[in-house]
Amino acid sequence: MRIKRNAVTTSSATTWHRIVASLFAALIMLFMISGLIHFLSSSGNKYDANMIRRGDTTIATVESGSTDSAKRDDITSTTAEQSNNSDYQHILSLTLDISPPTKIRIAVLKDKCPKAYEFLSFMVENQQTECNPCTIYRGEPVPTYWGSKDYPDRYFDKGRWGPPYALVQGGLVNSKFNTVEQDNHRPKVLRRGMVAWAGGNSIHFFIALADHPEWGDVHTAWGEVMPEDMLVVDALVKERPLKVLERNNPVLTNFVEPMYFHLRWEGG
Asked: In 3-state terms, what secondary structure has residue 134?
């Protein structure tokens, strides 16, 4: 009987050992699974965060990247502000009455030149009665020696700045205004494509065909020709007949036939 009792005791001990070992193994397995899940979750968050930093700024929010989201919102708002303040929001279309009809688009710098914008708006709204004599009449090609230090630093008597004077000029003749109140936007160098009043309070304007450092900041620049339309302006002085008025002082170059034009706001 004692032998049987020892056998039962030995069997019970073995069973408990197996149970404890199984529980221990199960705990180890649970620990490993938990660690794996945590690793995968962390990797996923890092991947999402990297995608947000590199990806499309139109993504709205990400719970795991609130800091990146705030930075992204700042970038988006800054871009929107720059777009709202863009100088290319107010486009004046100047259509020449030639064959074929030719359009020159000018970005009007409304924020920098509100007085010019007000005058131009008047001309657009009343052009049927006020802008019938509006023409482009002067065409000064860019000389090959423009700005060359081999020529005297002057804009007369064959200086490096002309004549000819690298510009196209027109007038906004009307019955109400003989002058335009000037805005305070006078760049020290008028760049190619800039549009400025011809001088003083003149209602005449010109488009620069080259950079003009020779005048300093005497001209109010109220617009910029759209870059792709500058080829159209260049073609006017290259393809249309010109006449040189040598008796003038300074010497001027005009188009043989002035070109009438009409105005409208793009999109209006």
From this structure: coil
